Structures are given as structure tokens and as C-alpha cells.
UniProtKB/TrEMBL annotation, chain A:
Annotated RNA polymerase N-terminal domain residues: 275-579
Entry protein name: DNA-directed RNA polymerase subunit Rpo1N
Gene: rpo1N
Family: Belongs to the RNA polymerase beta' chain family.
Binding site for Zn(2+) 2: 101, 104, 148, 151
Residues annotated as binding Zn(2+) 1: 61, 64, 71, 74
Assembly description: Part of the RNA polymerase complex.
Superkingdom as given in the UniProt entry: Archaea
Pfam families per the UniProt record, alphabetical: RNA_pol_Rpb1_1, RNA_pol_Rpb1_2, RNA_pol_Rpb1_3, RNA_pol_Rpb1_4, RNA_pol_Rpb1_5
Natural source organism: Halapricum hydrolyticum
UniProtKB/TrEMBL annotation, chain B:
Species the sequence originates in: Halapricum hydrolyticum
Function text: DNA-dependent RNA polymerase (RNAP) catalyzes the transcription of DNA into RNA using the four ribonucleoside triphosphates as substrates.
Subcellular location: Cytoplasm
Catalyzed reaction equations: RNA(n) + a ribonucleoside 5'-triphosphate = RNA(n+1) + diphosphate
Gene name of the record: rpo5
Gene Ontology cellular component terms for the protein in this record: cytoplasm; DNA-directed RNA polymerase complex
Top-level EC class: transferase
Protein name (record): DNA-directed RNA polymerase subunit Rpo5
EC number: 2.7.7.6
């Protein structure tokens, strides 16, 4: 770093470039289409001229004298034999052609109109709106004029044939004029007299002999004669003629457009003269922008841009030769068009209507525009997204012994990723130890940097020797060690919790290890997911990551303002088991449950067994994890009231609503009322306690857990039988034509709805019957009840009946003519013919049922696939639209042009993660905050009252005030 | 015709006079054109509002009781 202070950019302006400027900045004119001669040296004034920059290491640039790497390269130029149109500006060229006079080149608007558009332009500029709307309107207005308001010349319409050809559409005398006149002279109706040539001569005032000559086609009538005949006979003698405008004509035209007319169109004539849109000189990019590569066999392979430039120069030369030799106009025009094609494809090779220029192999060339556009282009691929060093990626796996702030890093990753240590007198020994361990031993070092900036690689061989040389002032690139902070990320990074900072714990084996409670924010599971890690490279970054990005700081989601980290899955089953029936544990058991937590002493026992042994209840064991002074009351998802008084869990079941991720009450309250550190400790300990608990009770699920007794199965069958009977009834009513349609529905729709309803009820009652026969300690019921995983519906489908399968929200209605499968009669409306699955998953599905089930299942899969891609693109657009908004120090939200978007962030200036998440409480309880701060601030109530009270302490000037002092002192 | 400005979901829209406007512009250190915009044809606007006027919108808020927002009338 050379110590330059950063500077801010004052302004940027974009405009067209003057061809003279191209020539001035050019290092050389390029006239030869070849690159290297037979000896392999670049040809002078060729495309690889050494003055255009160097790419081979060791050579010196002929223009600036620098070597490859430091020389950025220099532009050259090609003098085009004839002007060509720049494709990028074809629309603007068309607009100017349409809006200006073909004779005097002035904008065909009168002074009033000009003033109007100038004013509109100023206003839009002030409002920061799109100027194009105004200039487009100005052109539309100017185009309406048939005559120039300045010189009176007739204006023709301009036709634009994409991409680069322009025509003037003129009305000229048709070649069939004698026939048209003759036809018009014939009578309109049978009995009418035809118009004689004499009559025509009289009416038009043209000599009769001349009329004869015109009629025989020997004489072409002049403009005014044509109009006279057209008027007399009410006939149109003209046809459209397309007059091609050559680029040189357009250039001449644009050169004459006065500066003040351009200003009306929003063009700054100082920066951009319109004639500069017609190229006379073509800049040749430096060789550094189009380096040639040497293949394995020693052959040189040129860049696509160089290939294109070769084409341009070849045609340019041929054009000049042909013109000097006096070639016919037709040949010249062909060459001109060819030159135009090559220059066009040099800039953009994906223009519709033009065949793309191809490589010899048939691959389309990647020219200038293709280098910039799209996902892999310069903007999105190279500038917004770059590949980085100090990053690692591998598979993730769970480790419940880690804290949620930690990440297990494989030792082989830790040995590759380094942190820079500035050696001082105080850490000299430590630094030497790292270097002495070398690159292979674990807390080792890979590089050292001497004060003279020489970087030395630490090897197995030189590490001992190098360790002795390390002195204060050196830098040591040491391995990652436990406690280092790194950034951890899982794609897709959809919210800010997708990238969080973790503390390193170096571990053996090859995977990143993380605590399962951080799965929800990353949306990670362990079915093969991979994650990325980034080692931070300076102290500022490390400090920021620690303070702002650590997992515990990201615990509350700004999306819904509650915790996104908390107990999941078996943690929840476990806390449910521990607290639902409030079981008791003897001393050994209680200590075993708490042994992995920081609790190392049991509370007073809750009671004594008959034989006198002490016992503890599940709730009091859970209470050990709660912070003192926590008071809370809420309803759990197991539907009982949880009461916590002064950090003691008195009543209720601890389940998903209490400790779960996505808004567990206790976690959320601790994170907000205490702090994130307390909440982190709590979640970690709930995790470890839960795992001990579930190991104590044992928790498994199998097919037998979903089976129901035979009498229950009979009830289920009966319920489904009944539903079938009711469906049959409905169908009979319908067939008799007696079914009454519901409002707004046809009879057919009504029938479908009623059948669906009946079958839906059948499944639900099957589920209810099954549920009645399950015990409360059934693992599937426990999971559904506690909110750990699965729902009652899942249980219904496993034990009762799978129920109606649907595609697009209707019963299955597709397949063959008037039936779903050939196993059914046509137009069979019954339940089983339209995808009702009467069996449960446990019983197993019939082949037909299985087929319908697959149809419904397929729809689900397609839906998720479509939804993710759709919402991904939607999110990309939203992020791009909002990315520049920023909350300023005055609380307003503004965009980059300082336009206000919100007067106060979120209209209330509060952070969603700091306000209360309850709906009936105030978002910000000001009185509570005042109370708490005052309590903190003052040692006792009197001091506080003195501060709050309006009465001032009397100045103790005389002993008469002693009474007051004694009263205050309270003694 | 329904007068939407009387609807309970439509917050109060009032035209700022020049003194108030100056205060607002000074408070946020902005030009009039940096304000959010509202179309002249917006049915919630009071009838006397003209292009170039600044409208004060006072709406109810769960978190702050009252949120005040200003908008510039454009055509």
C-alpha cells in the first residue's frame, strides 16, 4: 500500500468520441491484416504491432517502455475507406433522421415547440425521470411535419431496415402512368361518355398534343402536370420509391445540425456531435485486450476480436483498391455493405436479422458486446462476482458438541488457509513456534514476509532455520487455529443469515461440522450439502465479523423479528418428553441429563420416593437452564399454558412454541430481555440437555407404531364405505337431474365439489378414528403434538386413509376418453375411478391407487421446481431494484441520488429485531425503558427521586437547613 | 361518486403552505424534487392541490401512532 488517501469521484459523463480523438490517442495506424511474420515477429503496423502493448513476458512496450503486466496496452486505429454506421446508435440515428430537415438539417419544430420541449426536458431532469420520454415525444412531433418550418423543403418518411440501412420513402410517378390515365378516362357506368383527350386537355390546361404523347407513354408528365391530371381524373399516378441513404449522406446531413437544435433533443453538442455516430475511424483495441495464446503444438491461436479486425482490414483494403481502380458502382456498394457488416459484427455479433460472424469451426465469434453482456459477461461475471482466495468448500455434517457459534474445520483446510500475524516483541515466541512447525504440522505457517517485503515460503526443510530468523516487524502467515473467526455461507444466499461468522474449531476428517441449531438460518441439511468458508484477512474485517456477523448476533431474523435459531426436531421431542408429563428422575439420572451443560450442581430435590431416595422433576431440571428472574406465560403448541416464574418452569409443556426455531417464546424473550449471549448459552444448553434426555428415554418409530387394532380398522372401513354410499347417492341424484347447483356454479361443478367434500370428510373421520386409538406416548403423536416434525394429517395418511389425490385442485380427470384408466367404464363418476385412495400408507396402495398417487405426487414436484426458479428471478430483480437504498444518519432512507424513499426507516425508525414481537404489547415500551435505565443509573430510590423530583436541594449555607438534610438522609 | 378521501383507510392529505414547506425542506436538507411523488390525478388528493404543491400525509402506525410523510404533486 502506497499510502494514497482514497478519493471520491466527483462526476462521470458519458458522450460520443470525436474521431480526431481516436487518431490522437492511437499509438499506430493499422494497415496490415496480418499478425506475425514467418519468423514469428509481429508485423509493423499490423494487428499485433508492438506499439499496441506487450503480452509476452520480458519484452518492452514500444510506446510506454513498461513490461507486460504493468503496461495496460495502447489503442491503434484503422482509417475506414468509407464511413459506416455504428450499430449501437442505429435507433438514435433513425430518430435524428426523422426529426431533422433533409435540406437544412434543422430540427423541424418551430420556436414555440422547441421552447416547450426545452422546458419539459428541464423539468424531467430535475425530477430525475427518464429523459428519453421527452426526446421521443419531440421526435414524434417533428416527424409529423410535411414541410420544414425553416426552409420549407418537403420532408419524406424515413424507413429503417434493421440493423443499419435507412431509406427515404418518396412518391414518384408510376411506370404504369399511361394505363392508369386511360383506365381513369373510361366511364364509371355503362351509359356514361368516356372522357376524351380533348376534355382532359381543356380541364388541365395542358396542350392536347402533349396529352396524346403522355397517353402513349412517350412523354413523362412533369410534377405540376401530374398533379393536374390526378386532380382532373381523381386518380393516383404515383408509387412509393425507396431511396437508400448511404452512411456518407447521413454524415453530411448530421454535420449540418446546429448545436442549439441538439440541445432540444437532450444531446450535449460539446460532448457528442451526431456525425460521430457514423464511423470514419475505427479504434483497434490494445493487444492486452485480445491476447493470442500459444497452443501446445507451438501454433498461435488468435483472439476472436483479432479475427474480426483481420476481416475488417481486408475488406477495407479491397474497398480502397477497387475504388482507385474505378470499379463499377455496384461493386463498390457491395464492398461497402460488407465493410458495414464486419464493423457491425465486430461490435455486436448477436443482432437479429444479421447472420452472426463465425469461426472456422462454425462457432459464432465472441465480439465486444458479447464480452460485456449476460451472466458470464464483464459486469456480472468479472466485476460484480469474482473468485476469491482464502476460501474453502466442503460437505457439512452435524456435531451437537459444538457451540452454535462454532464451526468444525478439517485440519487439512486449516493448514491451507492462513491468517497474517504481525510479529512484535510480545508474540515473537508464538510466531517462531508456528514457523518451526512448518507447513505440515498443525498450528504451523506457510509463508513469512520480511520487512523488505520479500515473501518466503516455509518448507519442511527450512522451517527450523527460518524460525530463528523471525524478528519483530516480520509477518507470518500462520494456519487457522481454534478461536479464529471465519465467514461461513450456504448458497442460495437468500437472506443475511445465509452468511454468518463462526469461530474455528480445528478437527480431523474432511467435513465442516456445525451445530444442528444453525440449520434453519442456512436452510441446510446433511444429505450432501456443501458450504463455503472464508478466512478474514485484516483486523478490521475480523472485528466487524465478530461484532456484527457472529451467529449469536444474527439470532433474531429481521424478516419477522423473532428468533430463527432454536431447538429443532429431536430437541423438541426431547423437551416435550422431559416436561409434558413432568416425569421424575433420581440423582444419577438427573446428573446424567445435565452433565453436558454448564450446570454442575443439582437444585433442592423436588421430593422423596417412598424409600426415601430423592427425585427431581423434568421441569425443575429444565428450569436449571433458564436465567434467573425470567417471568413468562404463553400457550404451547401442545395446547397448555406454560408458566415460568422467576426462572422456574412451573407449568406447561416445553415444545416448539417455547424453544423452537422460528419464534420460540422463551428463546425470543431471553434474546430480547437479556442479551444474545445469554440466549446463545440457553440454546446450546437446551440442545445438549435435549440430546441427553432423548437418549435417556429412547425414541424410535416403526411401522407398528402406525398400526391400529382390527376393530378400529373396521370402523375406518365402515366410514369409507359410508362415504362411497353417499357419493353414489350424489351421482344418482345428478343423473336423475335433481341435483341443485350451488350459486355461481354449474351442476357438474356442484357435483364435483360435493363429492370432494364427502371424500374429504371420509378421510378426516378415518384419521380421527385412527387417532383415537393411538396412545399419547406414540412417537408419531409426540412429534406431531410437540411440533417437532410431521402433523396429524401425516398420521391420518399413514394409519387411516391416504385420501383423494388431486391434480390442479380437482379430482383426477385425465387419461383416456371420458375415463382416467381403461379399468373403468366411460363417464364413471365414482370415487375410486377419480383417484380416491382408500388405503393407508401402512396398508399399502392398490396398483390403481398407486398410479393416481404418483400423478398427484408428480404435480407437487413440478410445482416446487417451477416455484424456486420463478421466485429466484423475482428476488434477483427486487434486490437489484432496492440495493442502492440506504438509511442515512438523519434516519431517512434515500437512494443514490438522495431522493427520499422513507422519511423514517420503516416509518417508525425501529429495528424489527429490537421491538417487541407480541401483537398486543407496544412495539417500543418507552416507560419500561426509562424505568430500567433509571434503575441502572442510580444506586437507590432516593437518588433517583432527587433526579426526577423538581425540588432542588437547598444550598447548605446555614445550619437552619439541617432538619431537611437529616430527613433526606433517612437516619 | 365515492369520495375516497373520506374512507377510513385513506390517510389525511393536506397541502403544505410555503412556510411549512420551507421547514420540511430545511429539516431534511433537500430540494422539493427529492421528495417522493404523487400524481395530480390521485383520488386521495384534496381538490385544491396543484402540480408543484407538497402534500403532507399523516397516517396511523402501530409502532409510532402517527407517521408523517410528504409528497410532491406531479402531473
Amino acid at each position: 500500500m502506497s499510502g494514497h488517501a482514497p478519493k471520491s469521484i466527483g462526476s462521470l459523463s458519458f458522450g460520443l468520441m470525436d474521431p480526431e480523438e481516436y487518431r490522437d490517442m492511437s499509438a499506430t495506424k493499422v494497415i496490415t491484416a496480418d499478425t506475425y511474420d514467418d519468423d514469428g515477429f509481429p508485423i509493423d503496423m499490423g494487428l499485433m504491432d508492438p506499439r499496441l502493448g506487450v503480452i509476452d513476458p520480458g519484452l518492452e512496450c514500444k510506446t510506454c517502455g513498461k513490461h507486460s503486466g504493468s503496461c495496460n496496452g495502447h489503442f491503434g486505429h484503422i482509417e475506414l475507406a468509407a464511413p459506416v454506421i455504428h450499430v449501437g446508435f442505429s435507433k438514435l440515428i433513425r430518430r435524428l433522421l426523422r426529426g431533422t430537415c433533409r435540406e437544412c438539417s434543422r430540427l423541424t419544430l418551430d420556436e414555440n415547440e422547441r421552447q416547450e420541449f426545452r422546458d419539459r426536458l428541464d423539468r424531467t431532469r430535475e425530477l430525475g425521470d427518464d429523459l428519453n420520454d421527452v426526446t421521443k415525444a419531440a421526435i414524434r412531433q417533428a416527424r409529423k411535419k410535411d414541410y420544414c418550418p425553416h426552409c420549407g423543403a418537403v420532408q419524406y418518411d424515413i424507413n429503417h431496415e434493421k440493423p443499419t440501412t435507412y431509406y427515404e420513402v418518396k412518391q414518384v410517378l408510376s411506370s404504369e402512368y399511361p394505363q392508369r390515365i386511360a383506365a381513369a378516362m373510361e366511364p364509371d357506368e355503362e351509359d356514361d361518355e368516356p372522357v376524351s383527350p380533348h376534355d382532359l386537355a381543356d380541364e388541365t390546361g395542358i396542350d392536347a398534343g402533349r396529352i396524346q404523347e403522355i397517353l402513349s407513354g412517350e412523354f413523362r408528365p412533369r410534377e405540376e402536370d401530374r398533379q393536374a391530371i390526378e386532380k382532373a381524373l381523381d386518380v393516383d399516378l404515383t408509387e412509393e420509391d425507396m431511396d437508400k441513404l448511404m452512411p456518407s449522406d447521413i454524415r453530411d446531413w448530421f454535420e449540418d445540425i446546429p448545436d442549439e437544435d441538439l440541445e432540444v433533443l437532450g444531446i450535449d453538442p460539446e460532448k457528442s456531435r451526431p456525425e460521430w455516430m457514423i464511423l470514419t475511424v475505427l479504434p483497434v483495441p490494445p493487444v492486452t485486450a485480445r491476447p493470442s495464446i500459444t497452443l501446445d503444438n507451438g501454433q498461435r491461436s488468435e483472439d476472436d476480436l483479432t479475427h474480426k479486425l483481420v476481416d475488417i482490414i481486408r475488406i477495407n483494403q479491397r474497398f480502397m483498391e477497387n475504388r482507385e481502380a474505378g470499379a463499377p458502382q455496384l461493386i463498390i456498394e457491395d464492398l461497402w455493405e460488407l465493410l458495414q457488416y464486419h464493423v457491425t459484427t465486430f461490435m455486436d455479433n448477436e443482432i437479429s436479422g444479421t447472420p452472426p460472424a463465425r469461426h472456422r469451426s462454425g462457432r459464432p465469434l465472441k465480439t465486444l458486446s458479447q464480452r460485456l453482456k449476460g451472466k458470464e459477461g464483464r459486469f456480472r461475471g468479472s466485476l460484480s462476482g469474482k473468485r476469491v482466495n482464502f476460501s474453502a468448500r466442503t460437505v457439512i455434517s452435524p456435531d451437537p458438541t459444538l457451540s452454535l457459534n462454532e464451526v468444525g474445520v478439517p485440519d487439512r483446510v486449516a493448514k491451507e488457509m492462513t491468517q497474517t500475524m504481525n510479529v512484535t516483541e510480545r508474540n515473537l515466541e508464538e510466531a517462531r513456534r508456528y514457523v518451526r512447525n512448518g507447513p505440515e504440522g498443525h498450528p504451523g505457517a506457510n509463508y513469512v514476509r520480511r520487512p523488505d517485503n520479500r515473501r518466503l515460503k516455509v518448507t519442511e526443510k527450512n522451517c527450523e532455520e527460518l524460525a530463528e530468523k523471525v524478528k519483530p516487524g516480520w509477518e507470518v502467515s500462520r494456519h487457522l487455529v481454534d478461536g479464529d473467526i471465519v465467514i461461513f455461507n450456504r448458497q442460495p444466499s437468500l437472506h443475511r443469515m445465509s452468511i454468518m461468522a463462526h469461530e474455528v474449531v480445528v478437527m480431523p476428517y474432511k467435513t465442516f461440522r456445525l451445530n444442528t441449531v444453525v440449520c434453519p438460518p442456512y436452510n441446510a441439511d446433511f444429505d450432501g450439502d456443501e458450504m463455503n468458508m472464508h478466512a478474514l484477512q485484516n483486523e478490521e474485517a475480523r472485528a466487524e465479523a465478530r461484532v456484527l456477523m457472529r451467529v449469536q448476533e444474527q439470532m433474531l431474523s429481521p424478516r419477522f423479528g423473532e428468533n430463527i435459531i432454536g431447538a429443532i426436531q429431536d430437541h423438541i421431542s426431547a423437551t416435550y418428553l422431559l416436561t409434558h408429563t413432568n416425569p421424575t428422575f433420581n440423582e444419577t439420572q438427573a446428573l446424567d441429563l445435565l452433565r453436558a451443560t454448564s450446570v454442575d450442581e443439582l437444585p433442592e430435590p423436588d421430593g422423596h420416593e417412598d424409600d426415601g431416595t430423592e427425585y427431581w422433576t423434568g421441569r425443575s431440571i429444565f428450569s436449571e437452564l433458564l436465567p434467573d428472574g425470567l417471568d413468562l406465560e404463553f400457550t404451547s403448541s401442545a395446547d397448555d399454558t406454560v408458566v415460568i416464574e422467576d426462572g422456574q418452569h412451573v407449568e406447561g409443556t416445553i415444545d416448539e412454541d417455547a424453544v423452537g426455531a422460528f419464534g420460540g417464546e422463551i428463546v425470543d424473550t431471553i434474546a430480547k430481555q437479556y442479551d444474545r449471549t445469554r440466549a446463545r448459552i440457553f440454546i446450546n444448553e437446551v440442545g445438549t440437555l435435549a440430546i441427553r434426555t432423548i437418549m435417556h428415554f429412547g425414541f424410535s418409530i416403526g411401522i407398528d407404531d402406525e398400526s391400529i387394532p382390527p376393530e378400529a380398522q373396521e370402523q375406518v372401513d365402515e366410514a369409507i364405505e359410508n362415504a362411497y354410499a353417499r357419493v353414489e347417492e350424489l351421482i344418482e341424484t345428478y343423473e336423475r337431474g335433481e341435483l341443485e347447483s350451488l350459486p355461481g356454479r354449474t351442476v357438474d361443478e356442484t357435483l364435483e365439489m360435493k363429492i370432494m367434500q364427502t371424500l374429504g370428510k371420509a378421510r378426516d373421520s378415518a384419521g380421527d378414528i385412527a387417532e383415537d386409538h393411538f396412545d399419547d406416548d406414540n412417537p408419531a403423536v409426540i412429534m406431531a403434538d410437540s411440533g417437532a416434525r410431521g402433523s396429524m394429517l401425516n398420521l391420518t395418511q399413514m394409519a387411516g386413509a391416504v385420501g383423494q389425490q388431486a391434480v390442479r385442485g380437482e379430482r383426477i380427470n385425465r387419461g383416456y376418453e371420458n375415463r382416467t384408466l381403461s379399468h373403468y367404464r366411460q363417464n364413471d363418476l365414482s370415487a375410486d375411478a377419480h383417484g380416491f385412495v382408500e388405503h393407508s400408507y401402512r396398508e399399502g396402495l392398490e396398483p390403481k391407487e398407486f398410479f393416481f398417487h404418483a400423478m398427484g405426487g408428480r404435480e407437487g414436484l413440478v410445482d416446487t421446481a417451477v416455484r424456486t426458479s420463478k421466485s429466484g428471478y423475482l428476488q434477483r430483480r427486487l434486490i437489484n431494484a432496492l440495493s442502492e437504498l440506504e438509511t442515512q444518519y438523519d434516519g431517512t432512507v434515500r437512494d443514490t441520488s438522495d431522493t427520499i424513499v422513507q422519511f423514517e426507516f420503516g416509518e417508525d425508525g425501529t429495528s424489527p429485531v429490537e421491538v417487541s414481537s407480541s401483537m398486543d404489547e407496544d412495539a417500543v415500551d418507552v416507560e419500561d425503558i426509562t424505568e430500567r435505565i433509571l434503575d441502572e443509573e442510580f444506586a437507590d430510590e432516593t437518588e433517583k427521586q432527587q433526579f426526577l423530583g423538581t425540588e432542588k436541594r437547598p444550598t447548605n449555607l446555614s445550619e437552619h437547613a439541617d432538619d431537611w438534610w437529616l430527613a433526606e438522609g433517612d437516619d | 361518486m365515492v369520495d375516497v378521501s373520506q374512507h377510513e383507510l385513506v390517510p389525511d392529505h393536506t397541502v403544505l403552505d410555503s412556510d411549512e414547506l420551507e421547514d420540511v425542506l430545511a429539516e431534511y436538507d433537500i430540494k422539493k424534487t427529492d421528495l417522493p411523488k404523487i400524481k395530480r390525478t390521485d383520488p386521495a388528493l384534496p381538490d385544491e392541490a396543484e402540480v408543484g404543491d407538497v402534500i403532507k400525509v399523516e397516517r396511523d402506525s402501530r409502532t409510532t401512532d402517527r407517521a408523517v410523510v410528504y409528497r410532491l404533486v406531479i402531473e
